[in-house]
């Protein structure tokens, strides 16, 4: 008696159309999950009218949101100890060369420590030091980086916690003119 080998079952190869549909569904699902996580991360951040404040830049210059009422601006919270903030620092500096940008160093130590960080990394930005996180608390920022785009009417039209791609920030600043 000879043993017969069981035949390997051959499944038909999925058609290109079926594979494309499968890929589309997977990409769509990943996008939905990504957007849901992003919305969840920003859920507590302030929306609507931007909380007004008066503060001082690191060089002692007084600053307020009213100083930025002519065009859309980026209010960006960051920290010296944050690796993602370091990753996007250069892009925020480049963005500040063509758009109004005000940054807040959240819980990053005393003024000298923030200045040392900026000098070490050769960064020039308009920076408010927020060593206790009081300004961050007014905007309900619980993690950095966090970005707000505020239109000329003082309304927050975009908010995001986490890395913000520079192209997205530029596009949102441009769109904020009409929102």
TrEMBL record:
Q: List the InterPro entries hit by this protein, alphabetically.
A: AhpC/TSA, Thioredoxin-like_sf, Thioredoxin_domain, Thioredoxin_ResA/DsbE_sf
Q: Does the keyword Membrane apply?
A: yes
- Where in this chain does the entry annotate a coiled-coil region? none
Task: List the SUPFAM superfamilies hit by this protein, alphabetically.
Answer: Thioredoxin-like
The Thioredoxin domain extends over 44-179
Name the Pfam families on file: AhpC-TSA (PF00578)
The entry's keywords? Membrane, Transmembrane, Transmembrane helix
Molecular function as annotated in GO? antioxidant activity; oxidoreductase activity
Q: Which parts of the chain span the membrane according to its record? A: 20-41
**What is this protein called in UniProt?**
Alkyl hydroperoxide reductase
Organism (species): Thioalkalivibrio versutus
């Amino acid at each position: 008696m000879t043993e017969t080998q069981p035949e390997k079952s051959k499944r038909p190869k999925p058609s290109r159309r079926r594979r494309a549909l499968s890929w589309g569904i997977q990409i769509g699902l990943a996008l939905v999950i990504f957007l849901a996580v992003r919305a969840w991360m920003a859920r507590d951040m302030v929306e609507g009218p931007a909380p007004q404040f008066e503060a001082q830049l690191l060089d002692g210059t007084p600053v307020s949101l009213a100083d930025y009422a002519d065009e859309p601006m980026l209010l960006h919270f960051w920290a010296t100890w944050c690796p993602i903030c370091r990753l996007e620092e250069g892009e925020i500096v480049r963005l500040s060369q063509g758009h109004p940008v005000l940054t807040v160093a959240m819980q990053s130590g005393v003024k000298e420590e923030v200045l040392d960080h900026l000098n070490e990394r050769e960064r020039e930005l308009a920076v408010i030091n927020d060593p206790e996180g009081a300004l961050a608390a007014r905007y309900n920022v619980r993690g950095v980086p966090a970005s707000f785009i505020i239109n000329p009417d003082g309304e927050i039209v975009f908010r995001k916690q986490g890395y913000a791609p520079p192209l997205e920030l530029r596009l949102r600043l441009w769109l904020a003119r009409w929102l």
